[in-house]
From TrEMBL:
GO molecular function terms attached to this record: 7S RNA binding; ribosome binding
Function noted in UniProt: Component of the signal recognition particle (SRP) complex, a ribonucleoprotein complex that mediates the cotranslational targeting of secretory and membrane proteins to the endoplasmic reticulum (ER). The SRP complex interacts with the signal sequence in nascent secretory and membrane proteins and directs them to the membrane of the ER. The SRP complex targets the ribosome-nascent chain complex to the SRP receptor (SR), which is anchored in the ER, where SR compaction and GTPase rearrangement drive cotranslational protein translocation into the ER.
Protein name according to UniProt: Signal recognition particle subunit SRP72
GO terms of biological process kind: SRP-dependent cotranslational protein targeting to membrane
Family of the protein in this entry: Belongs to the SRP72 family.
Domain (Signal recognition particle SRP72 subunit RNA-binding) ranges: 538-594
Length: 676
C-alpha cells in the first residue's frame, strides 16, 4: 500500500508541476488536494495549495489554510504568502506585523513591505525601503521599483507639501511622467505639470499602439487617469468649463477604477457648489462605491466627506448636514471644516448668535486654530452690523495684530464707525510691535524695516486727513529722520508745524530746496506740439500800429457780429399781424379756455337714424360761405373754409392731421391686439 501511495503521489506531483508551468492553477489545486488526502501534513503540498489559491484570487481561503496549519506552516516558511493575503484583503496593519515578525527579510518581503508602508501613508519609511531595494537589486523589475519610488515622491509633494528631491530618474515611461506631473502639481507648478501629462499621454499611446490586440477603447481607458489629472489642473487654473467637459468624457468611458471615478465625481461636485445640486446628488453615488476607501488616501476620503456635508447643507438637509459634520468632528477634533460647516448651517437657519457661540467654544478648546475661527466670527459680526464687536474680535488675534492687512482692515472699519481714536490706537500698537521686534533682532541698532516705515507713513497721513496734526508731527519727524532728502515728508511736516509752532515751521522751511534747483528744464514749444497736447499756442503775428494801440488800451472793443436774418415760415403772411403771445405756452395765453373734451362727440347726431341735432346748421357749408368773413381769432381751433384768413404761423397745424384723428388711430391700435 505504501508503495502504491508513493507511486500515486509521484504522479500527482508531476501533474502539479506541469499545471503550474502552464498556469493552470485550478487543475493544480485538484492534484494538491489529492496529495493532501494521502498526507494531510505535507508541508510542500500545503504551500502549493496556498500558492494555487492566491493565484486563483482566493485570498481569504488561502489565509484560512495558513491559520489552520500554524504548527506545520511556521512564520519563516509562509510569512510572505500570509502577509500578501492580508495585504490583498486590505488588512494592512496585520500585514505589517506579519512582515516584521518574519525571521528572515527576503527580497519578496522587502518589496511587499514597501507597498504596505505606502498604503499606510508612511512615505518617509517607504522612500527609504525602495531606495534600499533599488540599490541592492538587479533584475527585470528595476523599472517597476523606480515607478513606485516616483509615486512615493509624488505623494509626499501632494499630501505632505514636501519639496521633492531630484532622484535623477529617466522619464522613459508614461508612468514615470505621470508621477512626475503629480509631484509638480503638489508644488503648484501647474503649467509644467500639464506639459508632463501631455508627454505621458503621448508615451502611453506609443507603447499601447505597438500591441495589435489593443483597441482604441483600451487606450482611452488607460489614458483616463492622465486625462483626469489634466482636468484637475484646468480646474485649479479656473478653466472650470473645460475641466467639467473632460470629467464628463471620462465618466462616459465607465472606467473600472472606482477610485478614479470617486475623485472625478467629487471634483464635479466642487465645481457645481450650490448650483446644479441634482447632478451633484447623482455624482455622490460614485463616491460611495464599494472599495473606494481602499483606493484613496485619508485626505482624499476626508475631502469627499466634507463635500457630502456641504451638499447636504446646499440641499437644505439640515439634519443630514449636522450628522455628517458631527461625525467628521469626532474623527478629526482639531480640524476646522466640520465646525465651520456647522456654523454655516446655523447661519442658514438664522441662528447667528448660536453660530458665534459654537465658534468661540472651538477657539477656546483649540488655541492653535483660534485665528481662523475668530476671523469667521468677525465676518459674522459684520454681517449682523456689529462692526465694533467685529473689531474687538480681530484685535484679540495677537499673531495678526501687526500685519499690514489687519491694520488696514481695522482702520477702515473704525473709520466707518467714526472712531478715529481707536483707529489711531491700532496704528500705534502696530508701530510699537515693529519697534520691539526690530530692536530684538538687531540688538538695539533699531533700523526701520520697509513695512515699519510704511505703517508710520500711513499713520501720519491718516492723522493729517482727520485734523490730528499735532499727533502726526512725531511720525513725520521719524520719517524725515530716516530720509532727510524726502521733500514730500518735509512739506507735510512744515504744514503741520505751521498750525502748532510757526517758528519751527520757518526753521524747517530753510531745508526746502530753492526754486532754482526745483525748476524743471522743459521745452514748452516741444511739449505743446507733442502728440496728445490739448492746447496749442497760436503763433504770434506782426502787430500794426492800430493793433498796438488796442493792445495797450485797457478796454478792448469786441467786434460786432453780424446778425443773421431769421428764417420765416413758408406760409408767413406779412399782412397778418402776428400773435403777440405766440412765444408763451398755450396754457399761459390770455385767450386759452382749456381743451374742449368731447367736442366732436357732441356734434355727432343722436337719436333715430336720419334725425338731426340742433348744431346741424353749423355744419351747413352754404351758410358758412354766405356769411360775411370775420377776422380770425388768435388760437381758434374751429374748422374754417378755404376763403377765411390763414392761421398765424405759430398756431397752424399740419393739414389733414387733427389731434382727434390721431387719438382715434391710437385707440384702434390698442384694441387690435387680438386681431390679425
Amino acid at each position: 500500500k505504501m508503495a502504491a501511495a508513493a507511486g500515486a503521489a509521484a504522479g500527482l506531483w508531476s501533474e502539479v508541476n506541469r499545471c503550474g508551468q502552464n498556469g493552470d492553477f485550478a487543475r493544480a489545486l485538484k492534484s494538491v488536494n489529492k496529495i493532501l488526502q494521502i498526507n494531510k501534513d505535507d508541508v510542500t503540498a500545503l504551500q502549493c495549495k496556498v500558492v494555487c489559491l492566491i493565484q486563483n484570487g482566493n485570498f481569504k481561503e488561502a489565509l484560512g489554510v495558513i491559520n489552520t496549519h500554524t504548527k506545520v506552516l511556521t512564520s519563516d516558511i509562509i510569512a510572505f504568502e500570509k502577509a500578501y493575503c492580508e495585504y490583498r484583503l486590505n488588512r494592512i496593519e496585520s500585514a505589517l506585523k506579519t512582515i516584521q515578525s518574519a525571521g528572515q527579510q527576503t527580497d519578496k518581503l522587502k518589496e511587499l513591505y514597501g507597498q504596505v508602508l505606502y498604503r499606510l501613508e508612511r512615505y518617509d519609511d517607504c522612500l527609504a525601503a525602495y531606495r534600499d531595494l533599488i540599490r541592492n537589486s538587479q533584475d527585470e523589475y528595476e523599472e517597476e521599483r523606480k515607478t513606485n519610488l516616483s509615486a512615493v515622491v509624488a505623494a509626499q509633494s501632494t499630501w505632505e507639501k514636501v519639496v521633492p528631491e531630484d532622484l535623477g530618474l529617466r522619464e522613459a515611461t508614461y508612468e514615470l511622467c505621470y508621477n512626475s506631473a503629480c509631484a509638480l502639481i503638489g508644488q503648484g507648478k501647474l503649467n509644467e505639470a500639464m506639459k508632463k501629462l501631455q508627454k505621458a499621454e503621448e508615451l502611453c499611446r506609443q507603447s499601447l499602439s505597438e500591441d495589435s490586440d489593443v483597441t482604441e477603447e483600451d487606450i482611452e481607458a488607460e489614458l483616463a487617469i492622465i486625462h483626469g489629472q489634466m482636468a484637475y489642473i484646468m480646474q485649479l487654473q479656473g478653466r472650470t468649463e473645460d475641466a467639467l467637459q473632460l470629467y464628463n468624457q471620462i465618466i462616459k468611458l465607465k472606467p473600472t477604477d472606482v477610485g478614479l471615478l470617486a475623485v472625478i465625481a467629487n471634483n464635479i461636485i466642487t465645481i457645481n457648489k450650490d448650483q446644479n445640486v441634482f447632478d451633484s446628488k447623482k455624482k455622490v453615488k460614485l463616491t460611495n462605491a464599494e472599495g473606494v476607501e481602499h483606493k484613496l488616501s485619508k485626505k482624499q476620503l476626508q475631502a469627499i466627506e466634507f463635500n457630502k456635508a456641504l451638499l447636504a447643507m446646499y440641499t437644505n438637509q439640515a439634519d443630514q448636514c449636522r450628522k455628517l459634520s458631527a461625525s467628521l468632528q469626532s474623527q478629526s477634533p482639531e480640524h476646522l471644516l466640520p465646525v465651520l460647516i456647522q456654523a454655516a448651517q446655523l447661519c442658514r437657519e438664522k441662528q447667528h448668535a448660536k453660530a458665534v457661540g459654537l465658534l468661540q467654544d472651538f477657539a477656546d478648546q483649540h488655541p492653535a486654530n483660534a485665528a481662523e475661527i475668530k476671523l469667521t466670527m468677525a465676518q459674522l459680526k459684520i454681517a449682523q452690523g456689529s462692526v465694533t464687536k467685529a473689531c474687538m474680535i480681530l484685535r484679540s488675534i495677537e499673531e495678526l495684530q501687526h500685519k499690514p492687512g489687519m491694520v488696514s482692515a481695522l482702520v477702515t472699519m473704525y473709520s466707518h464707525e467714526e472712531d478715529i481714536d481707536s483707529a489711531i490706537e491700532v496704528f500705534t500698537q502696530a508701530i510699537q510691535w515693529y519697534q520691539q521686534y526690530q530692536a530684538s533682532q538687531t540688538r538695539g541698532a533699531n533700523p526701520k524695516s520697509p513695512v515699519h516705515l510704511s505703517l508710520i507713513r500711513e499713520a501720519a497721513n491718516f492723522k493729517l486727513k482727520h485734523g490730528r496734526k499735532k499727533e502726526a508731527i512725531s511720525d513725520l519727524e521719524e520719517l524725515w529722520k530716516q530720509n532727510p532728502k524726502d521733500v514730500h515728508t518735509l512739506a507735510q511736516l512744515i504744514s503741520a508745524y505751521s498750525l502748532v509752532d510757526p517758528e519751527k515751521a520757518k526753521v524747517l522751511s530753510k531745508h526746502l530746496p530753492s526754486s532754482d534747483t526745483m525748476s524743471l528744464k522743459v521745452d514748452v514749444d516741444a511739449l505743446e506740439n507733442s502728440h496728445g497736447a490739448t492746447y496749442v499756442r497760436k503763433k504770434a503775428g506782426k502787430l500794426t500800429g492800430d493793433n498796438q494801440q488796442k493792445e495797450q488800451g485797457q478796454g478792448e472793443v469786441k467786434k460786432k457780429k453780424k446778425k443773421k436774418k431769421g428764417k420765416l415760415p413758408k406760409n408767413y403772411d406779412p399782412k397778418v399781424t402776428p400773435d403777440p403771445e405766440r412765444w408763451l405756452p398755450m396754457r399761459e395765453r390770455s385767450y386759452y379756455r382749456g381743451r374742449k373734451k368731447g367736442k366732436k362727440k357732441d356734434q355727432v347726431g343722436k337719436g333715430t337714424q336720419g334725425s338731426t341735432t340742433t348744431g346741424s346748421s353749423e355744419l351747413d357749408a352754404s351758410r358758412t360761405a354766405s356769411s360775411p368773413p370775420t377776422s380770425p381769432r388768435p388760437g381758434s381751433g374751429a374748422a374754417v373754409s378755404a376763403t377765411s384768413n390763414v392761421i398765424p404761423p405759430r398756431h397752424q397745424k399740419p393739414a389733414g392731421a387733427p389731434a382727434t384723428k390721431k387719438k382715434q388711430q391710437q385707440k384702434k391700435k390698442k384694441g387690435a391686439k387680438g386681431g390679425w
